[in-house]
Amino acid sequence: MNTSFSKIGHWISGKLIKIAEALGLRSVSPVGPAKFVDLAPTDQADQEGVYSAALTFATASPDVSNIALTGPYGSGKSSIIRSFLKSYPRQALHISLAAFLPEAEDERRTVTKQEIERSILQQLLYGADANKLPLSRFKRIQSPGLWSIFRSLYILIGLLALWHVFHNRSEVFEGSYFKPFNLTNWTDISIAAFALIFLWSTIHHFYVASFGVSLKSISLKDIEIRPSSDDQDSILNRHLDEIVYFFQSTRYDLVIVEDLDRFEDSDIFVTLREINSLVNANVGVRRHVRFLYALRDDMFVNTDRTKFFEFIIPVIPIINSSNSIDMVLAQGERLELDGSLEQQFLREVSRYLSDLRLIHNIFNEYAIYVANLETDGENVLDATKLLAVLIYKNVYPRDFERLHRGEGHLAKILGRKDELITARERGYRFEIAELERDMAAAEQQVPKDLRELKMIYAMALFEALPDNTICVGRTNRERIALKNLADQENFDEFIVAPRLFHRNIHNQLAEHDNSTLQDRVDSEVSYAERVESIERKADAQKQSAHRRISHLRHEIKAIRTSKFNVLLRSSAQEIEGLFKDLGDGGDLARFLLLEGYLDDSYYQYTSLFHSGRLSPNDNKFLIQIRAFHTPEPMFPIDNPSEVIAGMREDDFSLDYALNVRLVDALLENEEHKDRLRKVFAYLSNEFPNQQEFFEAYYATGSHVGEFLMQLVDAWRDFVPAAIDGSSAVLHLAGIIEHLPPAMLAREREEHPGLSAFVADNLRDILDLLEGVDPVKLEELRIETKDLAAIDGYPNVARKLYELGHFCLNHGNFDYIFGSILGEDFGSDLRKRHYSRIRNSGAQPLLNRVESDFSAYFMNVLLEMDDDNEEDIEAILAVMSHDELEADDVEAFALRQTKLLPTLEEVPARYQAMLFRGTQIAPTWSNCLAFIRSENFEGGALIAFLGDDKVRAALLETPIPESKEALPLHRFLIDAEGLADIVYRDYIQALPREFQKFPDAISAGKRRILIEERRVTFNAENLAALDDEIDLQTAFVAQNIVCYLSDPSSYSIDDDFRERLLATDISDDEKRSLIALMDLSALPSLPERACIVGPILLRTNGALPSLTSDIVKALIVNAETESTQVQLLNLLHETLDKNEVREVLGQLPYPYSRIQTGYARPTLKRTNENSELVRWLDERDIISSVGKPFWSNDIKVNLYQS
Q1: CB count, 10 Å around CB of 366?
Q2: Least confident of 81-95, 119-133, 422-436
Q3: I want to staple 161 with a disulfide (CB 3.0 to 4.6 A). Which of 195, 535, 715, 739 is the partner?
Q4: How far apart are CA 12 and CA 6, in angstroms?
Q5: Cβ count within 10 A of residue 817
Q6: Of 839, 820, 829, which is closest to residue 864 (Cα–Cα)?
Q7: Which bin fits 918, alpha (ψ -120 to 50), beta or left (φ > 0)?
Q8: Could you give the CA distance from residue 988 to residue 1184 in angstroms, rounded to a whole number?
Q9: Is the peptide bond preceding residue 794 cis, with omega within 30 degrees of 0?
Q10: DSSP β-bridge partners for residue 225
């Protein structure tokens, strides 16, 4: 009874509430925005009433039975329907299949058409009160109402009445029961009447109920009988009578069907349309029933939907990817999260959220998670990351649930962190190895490039030399085979040498002008500049590689502390398949992971943490070591003190304790001193195998300095072990950075290899240092090989320079001048290197050079082929260093372009070298000073005097005539080593003659003395040349005037005079010599006659001593025909006619025919022939002279006898 009254009270209360809402009397709660938002459709979705107006039109139109409300998922169709129903005056039945949908990822569950129709039928029939469908064959539990009390009483009284009548059945059948039939017997009559009415009502009830009974089937042993309708596939068609009965018995005129389109089965719509038509056509249904479908636009192909529905209402989505940001921001404002959430994240992630209910649920869960995770009042969690986790949870719920068990796609991605770190480290280390190999190859390539350059210049030199050249040299004594020239270390000296000496296969020495060699190869760039360019290019490549290696090592150092999204981006392709396995292609998951909003710290946002207890990571660490698996050094430990407490003492003597967080904790507490000692002992024994731990600890450890100091003290051989290890640079960088100067000094003294290793690898070490105290560099006492390599650390470079801790090499000097002193370090420095150092005023630089001058000279000055413009003071300073090898100083001095003015400050051992190399000013005073020197070498002075430039400069001034200069005069006249042309020049410059010939000079040099008249002409000197007839002849010829003035003083015969006639003396002098000769011997000396005849002809005179025989000998032995005729014309008077004819007979044709007879010789008309026939005719030797008709020749007419 109380239950009935309670229901009545609730019913009355509900009605009053609805009335209050309709009248607007129910006020809104004055409290601010709710913390949570329900996900149910709202009835405020159609503020403008556009959709309500369309639906009102459709539900009022008599021709519209099937209405479609179309729009994409989440467009607000349900809210529009609810808003419409709020003002709909009639009853509507709502059928929703959303709860019946299988999970989108559950491929095992497939919903059949019968299941869908069964659900529709159930919602249709069970949506109405069971009491209103008493004849339905679908029996449902009916809740007793208020009238059930009276019905039960009616049944009880009726049963009592029937029992009473049945008990008195004999009286009833006899009729006595109704007697008397008046009011006095009203009780029995009333009971009988009531029993009869009850029996009738009971029979009527069962009769009516029988309409809802159907015979499904009758089954015997082997026979089953069932109605044909039971075989129909469609449940709706099978129970069509139930559906019609439903609409006959209820007042629903609008049936709303939602989520039916998600099953992608348009046949169900056909069935529902048929049902709608049958219901409206049924006479028992006295109203127009309409079906309203909420479905997607693409449910029907093409125009099929316009044929199926009588009215279609499109829904404009209230949210999509373009405006979802507004909904997200609205939720943030509702929860007052504007200050804690990244606005950029909200804008970007909203593009992936296009369902308003999903957005509401995400923020509902956010409010719950925040309330639970921040119970201690400390807001230490990242609100944006928490929201990202919840977004993932809602979009990928199944994968998120599996994440708690370490399964699923996200767990696989997060579990690959170590693999990604390893792969990235491997990639960086591979690139470093490649760069180091390239650097090594580049260093090897420089000598190859230099050799190719040498070959180019060597070939250019070979082309300029004669073909039969076999060797060359800078001096006449040096011999370098052509095939070995390019291999010479001082090859550059051959290139810049102005002249070279070369020998042929006959060992003949010759001089070659080499001044144009460089211009022939390249007129714009010199050999030294090209060498410098090759080396500079190699240095640039090396520095670039060093910078890249430094960057990569820094990346390796930071990779284990890199955020997960950074690692993921570097290997996105490797995990692409895991994203594709997620819904929607994993675009949202990819965004959250790659942008760093979702990472391996997710567990902090998905579980409660109790301080002072083991975290999941801590517990995992202990589980692994108890399973004898060593976690990696970077394994995350959240509560190291608890982990240490959970470890065994023996664990600290194993690699289990080699964890960055654990070692930090051991260093922080003195209580762990013994445990730390065990750790150091293990490291000393297993050092080569534990480099991964050292790398991890150096990169992320909090107490690296304390760790190294205690390790060095505990293990005294740590430094040499580190130097010999594979990660030596990393260890030494940590030692320098973290050990105090005193400890560094101690380690340097105990381990000498420390300074050498640091010097060799300083650049790599500095790349790993955060900063370095210059005092530590002073304690290490290193000698840096390449200051330019540490150009990125100018303070360190300057400090090393000031301390003088650098090697003496080209690169360091270039860097000091360019980067520290700020001076030019180009070609001028290379040409005047030592001079620039002396003039720089940089005392640290000068001190460093002078402290080890021998190394500077050998490694720098001597190696620079183009260092050839040093100051005189610098050259003399180099020569003053007695510790240097004389040959090396000579090579340095000989390539200088500046000449030493005097020998005053030049050490004695280098004087000859200067003259031999022409490196001293070409003055007669220097030559005389050298001759007087104790270390005088004649060969050096000969080489000096033989130089063309020296000779030209010396001969510009006269040779001194003083008595003090006589040694110089004697040296010049005795200079057999000079070339003849050079010797002649110097002999010409001598101011006086010498009394006699030198004994030790060659015939060529004596000839020069004769030709230049530098020896007095007398019989004694002439006699000194007895063995050299040619020189005697030349000597007399040069002094012919002296000889002719007193020929009797010299014992000279006609043979000697004959040789004199062949010299270049004048014809008059020759005529004088002929006068001294005995000409009677000419007929027997045709050669002499041949010489004398032309001389007489040229002097145009005859000698008194000439006889006819001599004349005939002169004429006949003359070399040419013309000379013979001219001599005959000149000397014919000495001959008679017969002798003339005799001579003519010995002359060539046609002169030989001028005799007697009938011949008529013809002569060419020349002056000598005209003269010949003239005197022949005059002397009557010929008859006459005539002229032929056909020419202008001379015709001679002879006497016949």
Answers
A1: 21
A2: 119-133
A3: 195
A4: 10
A5: 22
A6: 829
A7: left
A8: 63
A9: no
A10: 218
Q: What are phi and psi of 816, to 5 degrees?
A: -65, -45
CB neighbour class for 962 (10 Å; exposed up to 12, middle 13-18, buried from 19): exposed
- For residue 831 the two structure tokens come to 């040409």
Q: How far is residue 408's CA from residue 1044's CA, in Å, rounded to a whole number?
A: 132
Cβ neighbours of residue 1030 under 8 Å, at least 6 residues apart?
Answer: 1003, 1007
Instruction: Give how far Cα 1055 sits from Cα of 487, 622, 673, 1018, 1147, Å.
Output: 60, 128, 122, 20, 28
Report the distance separating Cα 315 and Cα 97, nearest Å.
Answer: 20
Q: Cα–Cα distances in Å, from 186 out to 171, 177, 189, 194, 199?
A: 16, 11, 5, 12, 19
CA-derived radius of gyration, the chain: 66
Asked if residues 242 and 137 have their Cβ atoms less than 8 Å apart, the reply is yes
pTM exceeds 0.90 for this model: no
Judge contact between 315 and 70, C-beta under 8 A: yes
User: Which pLDDT band holds residue 989 (cuts at 50, 70, 90)?
Assistant: confident
Do 703 and 667 form a contact (C-beta atoms < 8 A)? yes
Spell out the residues 6+ positions from residue 1068 whose beta carbon is closer than 8 angstroms to its own.
1099
- Give yes or no for a contact between 583 and 104, defined as CB atoms under 8 angstroms apart: yes
Cβ neighbours around 663 below 10 Å, total: 25
Which of 866, 827, 822 is CA-nearest to residue 841?
Answer: 822
pLDDT for 218 equals 46
Residue 734 and residue 708 in contact, taking contact as beta carbons nearer than 8 Å: yes
Structure tokens at 1164: 């060419």
DSSP secondary-structure letter at 1062?
T
pLDDT over threshold 50, residue 104: no
Yes or no: say if 1199 and 1182 are a contact pair by the CB < 8 Å rule: yes
CA gap 901, 922 in Å, rounded: 8
- Report the residue count for the chain: 1201
At residue 913's C-alpha, the angle toward residues 911 and 916, to 5°, is 115
Contact 153, 1 (CB under 8 A): no
Where does the pLDDT of residue 27 fall: very low under 50, low under 70, confident under 90, or very high at 90 and above? very low
How is residue 544 written in tokens? 């670039």
* DSSP letters for 1020-1045: HHHHTTTT-HHHHHHHHHHTHHHHHH
Angle of helix 691-700 versus helix 527-559 axis, rounded to 10: 90
Contact by Cβ (8 Å): 643, 637: yes
User: What would the two tokens of residue 316 be?
Assistant: 């404009």
219 DSSP β-pair partners:
224
Q: State the number of CA atoms in the 13 A half-sphere of 254 facing the CB.
A: 24
User: Which tokens hold the place of 432?
Assistant: 């470093």
Other beta carbons less than 10 A from residue 50's beta carbon: 12
Q: Long-range contact list for 958-966, CB < 8 A, 24+ apart?
A: 958/989, 958/991, 959/924, 959/989, 959/990, 959/991, 960/924, 960/928, 961/991, 961/992, 964/928, 965/924, 965/928
Residue 465 confidence (pLDDT) above 60: yes
**Helix, strand, or coil (residue 311):** strand
> 904 CB contacts (<8 Å, ≥6 apart)?
none
Burial class (CB in 10 A: 0-12, 13-18, 19+), 1050: middle
* Average pLDDT value for the chain: 79
Angle at 556 between CA 666 and CA 741, to 5 degrees: 55
The C-alpha atoms of residue 158 and residue 192 are separated, in whole angstroms, by: 10
Domain ranges of the chain: 32-137+236-314, 147-214, 324-395+563-602, 421-551
Do 356 and 40 contact (CB within 8 A), yes or no?
A: no
Tokens of 7: 């229901």
Q: Which two tokens stand for residue 192?
A: 């009988």
Q: Are 821 and 798 in contact (CB under 8 A)?
A: no
Per CATH, which fold does 32-137+236-314 belong to? Answer: Rossmann fold (3.40.50)
Judged against a pLDDT cut of 70, whether residue 176 lies above it is answered with yes
